[in-house]
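Q: Sequence in, structure out?
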Amino acid sequence: MLLVAVRAQPRARRPAVAGGTADANGRIRLRVAVTAPAEDGRATRAVCDAVAEAFGVAASRVSLHSGGTSREKLLRIEGDRETLAARLQVLLAG
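A: Exactly. Output:
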């Protein structure tokens, strides 16, 4: 299991999961752009789906840990921690 901090960008032109961005506290978050609007949890679900695809896991293995109504979210990904952490480093590199 791995907790991943993300910065969501709803209503993006193109969906993408790549690169890191620093938040107000200087913590690095994975950037996730989705085309879904931030209405009725659609963007949050799209973010979870995009992260699942980027990490190569089933969508059911990614869940929202915190930040349901915020652009800054914490996602829980179920799986081998070492494999997930290695993939996170690749995605953060861009």
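The chain has one domain: 2-93.
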